[in-house]
Structure formats: structure tokens, C-alpha cells
Amino acid sequence: MQIPSLRPTYIIGDVHGHLKKLVKLLQDAHLIDAEYAWKAGTATLWFMGDFVDRGPDSIAVLDLVMRLQSEAAASGGTVASLLGNHEMLLLAAYRFGRRSTGLGSNFLTRWKQNGGNRKDIASLTLRHLDWMAHLPAMALVDDYLFIHADAPYTLN
Q: Is the pLDDT score of 153 beyond 70?
């Protein structure tokens, strides 16, 4: 018999660089305080990917989520994240730039067409790149499979 976890679990998807909206959502759910610090104790927070692109604060979103991951762990909580297709596009644009995608375009152009912002790619650090590159594509949590819905690896 499987006993369900008594720890509250929260799931958020597709932040797309909107830091202010994310902060409001996290504060309204009592997961962070006025200084954006983790205050949810042993709660679990899952992000389903797509932290970046389209919004004005992609790098700040990455910084916040990465910091909350450490803060939650220190208080017995969990902040976990999946790789979204926009992180994949950003990583490819950073790594391969103007190389051809084989689809009549290059990686940088593809990323920009999907909401990429040049200031974001210029602000990436090795820490950001390493963190995104190590995000899992999917996760089995209890009896649930978590996966980012528009990830290219979900296609047959």
C-alpha cells in the first residue's frame, strides 16, 4: 500500500520570463516572503519548464528558481524543475548560434523567432547553462509522469 505524501505540492508551468507574475503567484501561495525567500518549509514546488523567452526577465527567473531550490532544500522542502522546449532552444542558440538547423534556418534565428531576447543570451553564465543542461526531460513522481507538454521529445 502506498501512503500519499502529506507535504503540500505545487506545480507551475510556462513562466516565460515574467518575474513579477511569478513572484506574485509564489507570494499569494505563501511559498516565498516579501524578500522572495523560501518560506514554505517542507512543501514541494515543481516547475514544468519554459522559464525563459517572451518576457522581460528570463535570467532573473532562472536566478530566483535556482536560489529557491537551495533554500527549500535547506529547510526540508523541494523545488524541482523540468526542461522545457524554450530552455532547449536557448541552449541550442547559445551552443550552435548561426549553424544551420537543417530546416532552412539557424539555431539563433529559431530561438529569436520563439521569443528569445539577445540580452538574455548575453547575460547567461556557466552556472545558468549547466543548471538548464542538467534539467530532466521528465520525472516520475509517485504515480504521475511529469513532462513539459510541447517538448519535441514528446512527439512520436
A: no
Beta strands in 7-156 (DSSP E): 9-12, 44-47, 78-81, 138-141, 144-147
How do strand 138-141 and strand 78-81 relate by DSSP bridges?
Answer: unpaired
Give the whole-angstrom CA distance, residue 128 versus residue 122: 12
> What are the two backbone dihedrals, phi and then psi, of residue 107, each rounded to the nearest 5 degrees?
-65, -40
Checking phi first, is residue 137 left (phi over 0); if not, alpha (psi -120 to 50) or beta?
A: alpha
What integer pLDDT is reported at residue 1 of this predicted model? 47
Note the pLDDT tens digit of each residue in 35-93.
999 999 999 999 999 999 999 999 999 999 999 999 999 999 999 999 999 999 999 99
- Domain coordinates of the chain in residue numbers? 9-148
Q: Higher confidence at residue 58 or residue 143?
A: 58
Residues 6 or more apart in contact with residue 43 via CB below 8 angstroms? 7, 8, 9, 10, 31, 72, 77, 78
Q: Which CATH class is domain 9-148?
A: alpha beta
Residue position matching grid coordinates 518560506: 39
